[in-house]
Design goal:
Blueprint (H helix, E strand, L loop, with lengths): L2 H10 L8 H40 L2 H25 L17 H28 L7 H13 L4 H21 L4 H79 L8 H28 L8 E4 H11 L1 H6 L3 E4 L7 E4 L1 H18 L4 E7 L4 E8 L6 H6 L20 H11 L3 E6 L5 E8 L22 E5 L3 H13 L3 E5 L2 H8 L4 E7 L7 H10 L3 E8 L7 E3 L4 E5 L4 H11 L14
Parallel strand pairs: 2-4, 8-9, 8-10, 10-11, 11-13
Antiparallel strand pairs: 1-3, 4-5, 5-7, 6-7, 12-13
Helix pairs in contact: 1-7, 2-3, 2-4, 3-4, 4-5, 4-6, 5-6, 5-7, 6-7, 7-8, 7-14, 8-13, 9-11, 11-13
Length: 599
């Protein structure tokens, strides 16, 4: 069924307790499937009442009549009720091979309705037995059965109405057969029909409400399914956009890096430099847009671990040192007296700190930015302070809002107003808090608070000779995109590496058949085999010592995988960052503890 069909049905209404054929079938299936669960306590209570009446009959009826009514209840009524009660415990007959003892919901609904008529007629027969012996049996049992059918049993309005009409007709026939005075019949039928009318109105209102709730539930479920489908499509779009946009940016970055290393004229060098800065700015904007989209689509799942905050702050100062230097700003990390640990996802914490530091460098208009830590009890505060122009109270209240930008008319790269919004979202994902302390003309202090972590035990330090002391020179480059491969190979050769190029995993295996390599750089997503699988097999065969995997998929976290001696980096590659990774890998094939190397 489609969403618009249910919306049309809700607009049309169901005054006559009927839906369009397809929706009516769906409604009946749901109602019949839920009927056994409702019927179980109803059948149990009805069986209990008839047994109680059978025990009370000898006390209130003449002996000859009592034995007849007891036999009627125990041999005619109770077996049917007990049979229906037993049916409620049978599994529904569904699927190609249903259980041998099972029943379809439609068949159970018919037996359930028949049990109502059966019970009502048994009451009529008891009244007939009493009339036969000229005993004034009241019609209260008829009223009780009417209420059972309309309210307790939960029968559909039409089924209950037809069953009640048959019971009333049988009762009227008994009164006529035994020549009950017309005045008495009239009085009795007045009360019976009044009760029947009340029951019909109540049953109509109840079913009308049930049908309205059914339409609402279906609309809610279809809306939920549509939202999940839309979310999955958005997630796929974000992933595809991330890969397809970052791949050409990576090629442009590599081409510009190689171009800037050539001898350019005085009029060309500034143009190349400006182009590099523009591409870098565009990459930052793209990364922010994709990050906020992934957060809003719940694609980000933090994996917290214990992190030494002192090291994270020092590493961030090193990472952003070149950016601050180009902006003419002094960047430093204020040392903490004792080690402080926090529970956080390393990748997300790196992104948060980077956003705060870059925001201070680009938008504070100050001369110095300081990173520091304020230890607490259950939470520790990590802060970034600048000596810039500061913010007024109105701006402070909105500075973390998505797409909000303070006045940046004198800034050539104003951004999109997403950096601090991403900081807010990522901090909350890790059960942290965020805020700002600022005043006009006195600078700003941005801070986050994260749960305190337990300081890890200090490992025993042993001295061991490195496996290799020489620098990594032999490099295997595996990249299926020709432009990216050629651009990166030219850049790596200019850095002094001996590069062997391969366009596929198969070509890479052919190269390692005759020689070994110190280092492998590979695209994560190769046509026939993933770069991770290729690296794992070559390392286990001792054909490579360490490696770098690059990918345009930001769903993969940038990180150093210590057990594999492997870095994972995002495209477009920042040449200075890649070079820092390679330089650190040259240190006996090991890698630093940071999540991202300093450029």
């Amino acid at each position: 069924m489609k969403l618009n069909e249910f919306e049309a049905q809700r607009a049309t209404g169901h005054r006559w307790l009927r839906f369009d054929p397809a929706i009516e079938t769906c409604y009946r299936h749901e109602r019949e499937a839920a009927l056994p669960e409702r019927a179980r306590p109803v059948a149990a209570s009805a069986l209990f009442l008839f047994l109680v009446y059978a025990l009370l009959d000898p006390a209130f009826l003449p002996p000859s009549l009592a034995w007849q009514t007891i036999a009627m209840r125990l041999l005619f009524t109770c077996p049917m009720i007990g049979f229906v009660w037993a049916l409620t415990y049978l599994p529904p007959r569904t699927g190609p091979k249903p259980p041998r003892l099972s029943i379809t919901p439609a068949h159970f609904a018919r037996w359930y309705a028949l049990s109502y008529l059966w019970g009502g007629l048994s009451v009529v027969l008891i009244i007939a037995l009493a009339r036969n012996q000229q005993y004034p049996m009241p019609y209260d049992g008829i009223l009780l059965m009417l209420m059972f059918g309309y309210f307790l049993m939960g029968l559909p309005f039409r089924t209950a109405s037809i069953g009640s009409a048959l019971i009333i007709a049988a009762y009227l026939l008994v009164e006529v057969i035994y020549q009950t005075p017309p005045r008495v019949i009239g009085v009795n039928m007045f009360f019976v029909m009044t009760a029947n009318l009340i029951g019909m109105v109540g049953a109509w209102l109840r079913e009308h409400q049930q049908r309205a709730h059914f339409i609402d539930r279906q609309l809610l479920e279809l809306s939920r399914q549509k939202a999940e489908t839309d979310s999955a499509e958005k997630t796929h779009l974000i992933s595809v956009a991330s890969h397809d946009l970052r791949q050409p940016l990576n090629v442009i970055n590599l081409l510009l890096e190689n171009l800037s290393a050539t001898r350019l004229g005085n009029d060309q060098a500034p143009m190349v430099d400006r182009l590099q800065r523009s591409v870098s700015h565009f990459n930052g904007l793209l990364g922010s847009l994709l990050d906020i989209s992934r957060i809003q689509e719940n694609m980000v799942r933090p994996l917290p671990e214990t992190i030494i905050a002192n090291d994270a702050m020092q590493q961030m100062a090193e990472t952003c040192f070149a950016v601050a230097q180009r902006a003419g700003i002094t960047l430093r990390a204020a040392p903490s007296r004792e080690p402080v640990t926090v529970q956080a996802d390393p990748h997300l914490l790196h992104r948060i700190l980077q956003n705060l530091v870059v925001n201070a460098i680009q938008h504070s208009h100050g001369k110095e930015v300081t990173l520091g830590i304020s230890p607490g009890d259950r939470h520790h505060r990590l802060w970034v302070k600048d000596d810039g122009c500061g913010l007024d109270e109105t701006t402070q209240q909105r500075i973390f809002d998505t797409f909000y930008r303070a006045d940046s008319t004198d800034n050539s790269d104003p951004g999109l107003g997403l950096g601090l919004a991403i900081t807010r979202e990522l901090t909350q994902l890790m059960s942290g808090h965020y805020g700002i302390t600022s005043a006009k003309g006195e600078g700003s202090l941005f801070w986050i608070e994260l749960p305190a972590g337990r300081l890890p035990d200090q490992p025993t330090i042993t001295t061991r000779a490195p496996e290799h002391s020489q620098h990594l020179q032999q490099l295997l480059l595996v990249e299926d995109d020709r432009d990216s491969r050629q651009g990166m190979a030219a850049m790596l050769r200019r850095w002094g590496y001996q590069v062997a190029e391969a366009e596929s995993a198969e070509a890479a295996r052919a190269l390692v058949a005759s020689e070994t390599f110190d280092l492998m750089i590979s695209d994560l997503h190769l046509p026939a085999e993933s770069g991770r699988e290729l690296y794992a097999s070559l390392r286990s065969a001792r054909k490579v010592r360490c490696g770098v995997l690059v990918t345009a998929d930001t769903g993969e976290a940038q990180a150093y995988i210590r057990e594999d001696n492997l870095w994972l980096m995002h495209k477009p590659l920042v040449p200075s960052r890649l070079r820092a990774v390679l330089q650190r890998l040259q240190q006996t094939g090991s890698a630093p503890d940071s999540e991202d190397p300093a450029p």
